[in-house]
Known about the structure:
The structure holds two protein chains of two kinds.
Chain A lengths: L6 H19 L8 H17 L8 E3 L4 E3 L1 H24 L9 H17 L3 H20 L5 H32 L4 H7 L5 H19 L7 H8 L2 H26 L7 H20 L5 H21 L7 H30 L10 H4 L1 H15 L5 H15 L3 H26 L13 H19 L2 H9 L6
Antiparallel strand pairs in A: 1-2
Chain B lengths: L7 H15 L7 H20 L4 E9 L2 E8 L2 H24 L7 H20 L3 H19 L6 H32 L4 H10 L4 H18 L8 H4 L5 H10 L4 H8 L1 H5 L2 H22 L5 H21 L3 H29 L15 H14 L6 H15 L2 H26 L15 H21 L2 H7 L9 H25 L8 H84 L3 H19 L4 H24 L1
Antiparallel strand pairs in B: 1-2
Helix pairs in contact in B: 1-2, 1-4, 2-3, 2-4, 3-4, 3-10, 3-15, 3-19, 4-5, 5-6, 6-8, 8-11, 8-13, 10-14, 10-15, 13-14, 13-18, 13-22, 14-15, 14-17, 14-18, 15-16, 15-17, 15-19, 16-18, 16-19, 17-18, 17-19, 17-21, 18-21
Amino acid sequence: MDLGAVVPEMILAALALVLVPVAGWARAPRWRTAPAVLAGLGVIAAMGFTAPMLWATPTEAFCGTYAVDPFRAAYQLLLELGALLTLPMLAAHFRGHAQEPHAPIAVLFALVGAMGLAASLDLGLIVLFLQMVSFPSYILVVLARTDRRAQEAALKYFIYGAVALAVMAYGLTFLFGLTGSLNLRAIGAGLAGADPAWVAVALGLVLVGYGFEATVVPFQFWAPDVFQGASAPVSGFISVVPKVAAFAGLLRLLLEAMPHGLSSWPLLLALLAAATMSWGNLVALRQRSLKRMLAYSSIAQAGYVLMAVAVAERAAGAFGAVGFYLLAYLFMNLGAFAVVAQVERAGGSDSLRAVRGLGRRAPWPAVALTLALLSLAGIPPLAGFAGKVLLLGAAIDGGMAWLAVIAAINMAVALFYYVRVVAEMYFAPEERATFAAPGAGYALSTVVATAGTLALGILPALGLVPIGLGTNLLR
Amino acid sequence: MTGSGLVAVPLLPLLAAALALAIGRRLPRAGGVLLVVSLAGSLAVLLSLRAGGRLSADWLAVGRFRLLVGLEATGLTWFAAAVVAATALAVSLYAIGYMRDEPTGQPRFFAGMGLFAGAMLALVLASSFIMLFAGWELVGLASYLLIGFRSREDRAVAAATRAFLMTRLGDMGLLLGWLLALLATGTTDIGAVLDAARSGQWVPGFATLLGFLMFAGAVGKSAQLPLSAWLPDAMVGPTPVSALLHSATMVAAGVFLLLRLFPLFQAAPGALALVFWTGAVTAVFAALVATAEMDLKRVLAWSTSAQLAEMMIAVGLGVPYAAALHFATHATFKATLFTAAGSMERQTGTRDLGRLGGLARAMPLTAAVFAAGALSLAGVPPFAGFWSEEAILSAAVARGPGRGLLMVGLALLTGVYIGRAGIAAFGGRSRGAARTGPPQAATMRAGMIALAVAAVLAGWLLQGSSLAGLLGMREPPRAGAGWRGLAIAAGLAGLSFGGGRAWICGGVPALGRFPQFLATGLDRATRAAVEPAKRASTDLDAIERVQDRSARALAEAVICVSAGLDAIEHALDRGARAVSGSARVLAHGAEWVEARGFGQGGDRLAAALGDGGQRLRALQTGKLYLYTLGLFVWAAGALGAGLVLLLR
């Protein structure tokens, strides 16, 4: 038996199942936090079992359907970290509501799905786990039940996701039909002699699903509405965990099933990357809602990452660059969303005006948001700068200097909308005198995210060493 | 041990900044003192170290690439750091007095200045591109925060954003440049990259490409064409900021970059030519605009752009020594001019050349300080500017009389605009503005006087072979006495023309109004360049909205369908109920027959069964969690059974 290969997933799945009845019983206000605390402890335990796999020799488990390799361990650790950072602010957001005990369950289910996606070697499992990431995410969006916007957002998310994943599943059937196998590596060997036209069709269809999860243009339409409609902690979660999982899955699919740039996917991805970052940045320039602005910003960030995915086979550093950037992105984006969640909670609005004078009203959250935004903009010495250096270096090294130039122009333009928020916080006169004391959960998420953003910027080796181990992929 | 003290140089002002913020609520006025003390400490450390120290550590090592961070005191970096620290020290002293009456925000202001000073010192002392770029971006950030300091004015925020964005555009060129150098050499160590450039191991075009990219950064930072429009707007910041960041040090970082990377540019004649021509065009353009500006600080801003362009010319001519000397002397005399302008603005409440006039008698010290700066700027011997401008002239003459004439023409224009500005403010009749403010603080006077003394003496003290030896650069052969005399005469002629015209006509533009059109033209062109991005943003937004509407239509259609399905289900339900109703009627009949037909014995059994059913129903309380618990128990049982089978 290969049960040892799935210990972290089993811990989390079992915990999620146990928490379903527990959440029903935990009605009394003082017990409502229990599921979140248990979920947090479970995620930490799972991380403890995931970490040793960083040094594992790549093998496969369960008849070649599930990978045990450092790549998987690195990305699963990223996903667990993302969930761990989301849990406190989610608990703080739902504090005192009936949904409080249920939210962590959805997070755990989505996390298991995301972790499975990072390790799947089998088309069937890929479809299953992609659905498993998506469904709890829909539920998280609609958890704020009274809000009509949230319902509309959840419906859009659901319909768009259902169609995208169906299209992707259709694409996977082509891969099966061409090679007669569901195994990624068998497909990789079989596709070498297949008709390139059909391979291209399959690639085109399969990209839809990953593009949907990772908000790659032109599959990003759902993101702004959903981010705006959902509550800020949920938006933070959706902007990180499904995206990291999608990039992990995409890397595995491309490198194992379509090796040697089959049907020129590097060029296709490079074009998509250029379109994604330009679209996200240009539309973000006009946004007045913080969550919507961060949605477009996260689309643009996905474009930067995709740039290194496109050269993953050609540049030695590209693989590490993707992982490192996702780690940095996780910290800075969740840091930004944690502060926006506080602002939203305190003022009931996430418009740009809500942060006016925040620098004086609430100096510490304002500093955290400033650091997160400057990091997203790539100002040294923050994590986003180190990540962007690696991404741009990988793109140039991989022979796509034109893409690096487009990315650099985008990074210069993007500064405008990030700095506009900073200007509102420090330069604009305050409109509200008070700022409600934030919950401890927000503070915890914010502090950890900010510390990560700073630490990775000053000492990138902290993140690059584990990520570097994780470049060892089963092939 | 060599160089470990070097860390203290940028770190002290940064610590002062953090401390100023931390104790800002209790001691709002301590920030200035902290900054001055820390800068004095930095300067002392620097002077005690001399050149030669070096400190370096790995920041990142990826494959064959080593990204380093480190500081290094070569002759050039040590000299530049000393200039920066000394200027910052004098301006900070001045700032204590200048900000004395500012009600709030003193901690924020001095923290910004400390951040700037620390980042700038890190920039000039950097031994690796990472450190240099980090300093480069952080001085931009500090500049943004300080320009926007008077945030109640909308103009201040707009100017701050504009400055940040326009310089950042150039920064991306610098970023790509050093990334490319990293890929070619495998390290970010500046010395190693320069060695590679010197050795000529690269394909011919590569050094030129690197030079172009790095120069883009310098163009943005030093406000050269076409990225100059932000500098005059930045003058809405407090005057100490204009004096330190936007004239003496930060904007000069572009020139410093070219000096630091000079061996690379030497290997790239194409890039050097571009540097020269950009400098020449900017110098003429900016000097012309400066003759027509009505705002004293904007005159000085355009003058800064022109003077930096002269340094570019010197680099472009292949004589970095002249640029380095001018870098130092310009820092002294331009900071002097700005501090005098700030002092005047503080006491009269305006800096409009149309309203100022005849103020020399009311504020003699300020006027004398301004005169020292102005004469130095105009290249009148023996003031500081004379020595460095003569060095640039010599470099130009050595390359041909055309370039020499360009420098003489620039000397003339410089004299015209600074003579006009000085006389319009301090000479002639009074035109409304009068001294109303409080007397100047002692710290302000001390800062001004220190800078003015430097503006008089610095050139004479610095120039010569000892500086050239320290920098490791050659002095250009001195131009003939004829050329030197011509340049001095041009400066004096310009001064007397500009000054005389201003004495008679007041603050009207010295050369007519056409230079103003140049400035508005540039402004409009800058705006027009941003326009496509704005329009694209609008268009994409519209596309998103259409897409959104269709998504909503789809969602509504889905809801409609589900409502329809609901209705169908209701109908089916009603039908089913009707069927069940008739069944019940039938059942009643049957029951009647049964109750009569069968005995009571069966009833007992039925009651017992009913009881059991009741108990079962209590379990089915409609609570999802109990259902799932059942599932879970089932799953646990199955797994347990599996485990037993497995272990057996």
